[in-house]
Structures are given as structure tokens and as C-alpha cells.
Amino acid sequence: MIRQLIEKIQKTKAPVCVGLDPMLSYVPEHIQAAAFEQYGETLEGAAEAIWQFNREIVDHTFDLIPSVKPQIAMYEQFGIEGLKVYKRTVDYCKEKGLIVIGDAKRGDIGSTSAAYAVGHIGSVQVGSKTYSGFDTDFLTVNPYLGTDGVKPFVDVCNSHDRGLFVLVKTSNPSSGEFQDRLIDGRPLYEWVAEKVVEWGDASMDGDYSNVGAVVGATYPEMSRILRNLMPRTYFLVPGYGAQGGTAEDLKHCFNKDGLGAIVNSSRGIIAAYKQEKYKQFGPEHFAEASRQAVIDMVADINRVL
Amino acid sequence: MIRQLIEKIQKTKAPVCVGLDPMLSYVPEHIQAAAFEQYGETLEGAAEAIWQFNREIVDHTFDLIPSVKPQIAMYEQFGIEGLKVYKRTVDYCKEKGLIVIGDAKRGDIGSTSAAYAVGHIGSVQVGSKTYSGFDTDFLTVNPYLGTDGVKPFVDVCNSHDRGLFVLVKTSNPSSGEFQDRLIDGRPLYEWVAEKVVEWGDASMDGDYSNVGAVVGATYPEMSRILRNLMPRTYFLVPGYGAQGGTAEDLKHCFNKDGLGAIVNSSRGIIAAYKQEKYKQFGPEHFAEASRQAVIDMVADINRVL
């Protein structure tokens, strides 16, 4: 699966993914009004508003980008109705030829991780039939429980040609609280990185492994070290744009071949029309603002590669 | 919320929760057949089988126990249809007067954790209305991202009188891989424990905090230390029974007042009819086997208290 992602990155010349993390407050008034008109101020109404919002953004950006990363929490907050739109968004993006990274940060004891794995990136057995619950191409995974909590995801990657991004060093302000603590002189995230390499060793797919890592754009010095520690691990890099990471900060996430990382931006793209810079589009043309923001982001990143 | 849980534990004299973690393979043949007859071998069929299985177990045990802990992964593996049954199970258990611990192990950057928190233990705003997506009483939370990833859950606990159990030391075989690593001479799980105490300081609800901890039954020496480190933190203790933890192993999880811990058993209760010990019930009477297994578990634990 990482090979497919790389091919799409090379084709679009855009090592980016658009984070489809819609807060209802990002959805322009006219879309919310139309959805509430149809379904009332209900969970169905919220879900419909988010779906219309997503669809327009995807329609206006899919030809420019290799992939999207829907954050499942933003759908889960609306319960079942929200999750239906998560699935609908995943399916729609795949129809449009996009690679879909499900940002779910799941992780549990072995038997439980196995259930998450079949539900999100594999298939579940029901009598003599098999079904895919959510069917994303990649999934983000939390490593706190260690190897037996991650291994079932890796197994499903191998059997279904899918990929993972395991949290190594996250982009949030307090990520260092545990992740940066020194163990035998080295921060925890380096120990996790070594395990990610080990977990991914048997999942090579071309030059890179299907087992990737999440490495935040907001800690550039650390990404330099992690790049060296994990030469064949693809990085999913959150934190660019709204969270404060700049293109300069991203340099070290890439290998010398210009590959090795895919940079996510969520709010900076999907709510671009709310920024001073893209104000001229107006809420009616929010998706055109997103398209311009993608073009600008790609140019910004390619400038440092 | 922890006060309500304690009252129910005292009333039932049962510091236990039943883990509603149904694998389809646990569901007796006759229930699967009836569900597949109605819906075919589909995700709806699997979900219906699990719902009927859960309902019977709850009907046969709710008077003996204070709480249940549905593991959301076991539902999520069947996609939307599975998650509908997760919700239905949560709602049904609450109608029966049970306290529901949603075992979801969520955790992300701040804004994303906030979305999970409103979806699972709080309420989400839609225009002028508010709705609860899943509406469990407690939620399990993963601490790898640090304070700003946990704080939004704590905030919702405080505003909605709900509770958390934050992963500290998990019950699985490789939990020590990162959790036991020494940082300034003390294992990571102790540092997490100290943070859990800090996070819970402003969430006291009677003698205990609404911010609890997950501490596996399978590491008794560690639970003794954690009990001392976290005197006012309630422990959710997985790993008893099928995972290998014994009643003796649990002793240290409790305070001298006999409170401080609630012990989960999943497979050992819900699939009791498959054990040699309860074989006489047979698959037709699986829920009576579960009832007997609850009675035996409660006696076993009370023996060491």
C-alpha cells in the first residue's frame, strides 16, 4: 500500500494529505442551514452538513492530492449518524481515486487490536462471508500497549496490503510529557521508533515499509533524528500550518530522494475561507479557497525539498 | 459518577464489572442461526446475533453487578451495524440501572480528544440543541499524548459528572515494553500514575476522584506500588480470569476500606458456557452459565478482601 501512496505522491508532485476533520463551526452557514432545513437541528442534520462540506472539498481538491486523512473523532462526536458520514466520506474519497488514511489512533490488547484491525483495514468474517466495516487504506495506531497491541494491525496490513502510521512523536504541545522522557539516555520516542522499524521489517513494499510513523512537524530537531533512525519508514507529519509547523520545519522529515514523508493539513485547508489570506473567496466558495490553500501548501513544501 | 459506582458496588457487594466484549464465536449456534435466518450472513445479521447474546447476558446478571464494560472494538469490527449495537447495548444497560464503562481507549491532540469526549461521555452542540452520541458513564483513555490530550476528557467529566479510567499499567504480556522502562529510576507507569493523580485532583466526587486508572491484574507487585501512589484513584482492573490474573493477585488493588478497585472479567463471564466448569448449562442456557460465573467471581474476589 505504501508503494501506491508513493506513486500517487510522485504523480501529483504533492507530498500532502488533506485532513478531513470537520468541526461543525467550519461548515459555512448556507450548508448548515440547508441541512437543518431538511433534517432539523439533529444529529442527522449535523451529519448531512458535514457530508456536503466534505464532498465539495473533495470535489475541488482530489485532482491535486494523493490522499486524505479523515479524523474519525470528528464524526464519532455525532454518534452513529456521524460515523455513517465517516464511512460515506471514506468510500467517496476512494471512488475519487484518493488513498484514505483513517486517523483513529486505535490500540489495545492483542485480541482487541485484532478487532479494530479487521474493522478498519481488514475484513471481518460473518458465517461464510467477509465484510469490510470501514475499509480505509491506512490507519493510525497508538503504541502504548507494546508489541502485542500493534502486531494484529501489522498482520492485517500484510494480509490485506494496507498500511499503518504508528504514533512516535506527536505534534501537540504536551507530547513531550511522556514521549521525551529519557530511558537509558534516549527519549521514549526513539525507543518507540526502533520498535516501529522492527514491526515494519517484514512489511516492506518497495523501498519503504507499510508500517509508517506519525512524527509531528512541530519538533524539527527530533524529526531529523527520527529520519536517521527509521530510513525506510514513511512519516505521516501532522502539525503543519494551523498547529504552527512551517515548511522549513519539515525538511528533516524527508529523505534525500524527496520521499519519506506525507504532510497533513486539516484546518489550514478545509477552513481556509476563514483565513484573511483566502477571505476573498467568501463562504459560498469555501471549496475553491480550499483548492487554493492546497496549491499554496504544495508549493510551500516543494520549495524546501 | 465514581460515587454512584461505589454506591452500587456496596449495594451489590460485588466490586466487578462484566466485559461485554462479544466475539461472534462466543455467540451460541442457535442465536447465530436465528439472526442469519432473519438478516442473512451480513453485518446486520452479526450485529443482531451479538445484540441477542448481550441482552440475555444482561438480563441474567444485572441484579448481581454494579456495572458493565462494553469493549467498543468488538462492535466497531462490524462497522456501522456493530456500532448501532454498541449504542443499543449501552442504552439497555443504563435502563437496567447499570453503570456503563465504555472501553474505547481514545486519546489524541486536544481538539480531537474534545470531540471524542463530547461523543462518548458528554454532549455535542447542533445549532441550538445538544445530543449525546454514545452516552456512557465512564470512558477509558490512552495517555501517550500527555496532558493536553487527556484534559478535554477531564473537562467533560467535570461538566457532565462522568468518569474516566486512564491507562496506567495494562494487563497484556508486552505492556512492559514501554510502560516498565525506567525514567530517572522509576518506571514510566509510575510517572503516568502521578499525572493521573494530578489530572484527577479537581474531580473529587466523595472519597475518590472521577479520574480513575487502568491497572492490570496480571502484575500484582506493580499494583501494590500504584495503590500507594494513587490512594484516591479508583482502579479498573482487567486481566482477571481468562488473561491469568487470580483473586490473590487483586488484593493490592484495593484499599484497606475494601474499596478502590473494580475488577473486569469478559470472556470468563460471557463465554462461561464454553468452560469445562460450566459445561452442564449447555449453549441453550449460556446466560445462566454467565450468571453462575458472576456469582463465583464475586465470591472469589470477596474471599481475599
TrEMBL record, chains A, B:
Keyword Lyase set for record: yes
Pathway in which this enzyme or protein is active: Pyrimidine metabolism; UMP biosynthesis via de novo pathway; UMP from orotate: step 2/2
EC number: 4.1.1.23
Catalysed reactions, semicolon-separated: orotidine 5'-phosphate + H(+) = UMP + CO2
SUPFAM superfamilies per the UniProt record, alphabetical: Ribulose-phoshate binding barrel (SSF51366)
Source species, domain of life: Bacteria
Keyword presence, Lyase: yes
Entries under SMART domains matching the protein: OMPdecase (SM00934)
Keywords tagged on the record: Decarboxylase, Lyase, Pyrimidine biosynthesis
UniProt-listed Gene3D superfamilies: Aldolase class I
Active site, renumbered: K105 (proton donor)
HAMAP family the record matches: OMPdecase_type2
Family of the protein in this entry: Belongs to the OMP decarboxylase family. Type 2 subfamily.
The protein's name in its UniProt record: Orotidine 5'-phosphate decarboxylase
Biological classification of the source: Bacteria, Bacillati, Bacillota, Clostridia, Lachnospirales
Gene coding for it: pyrF
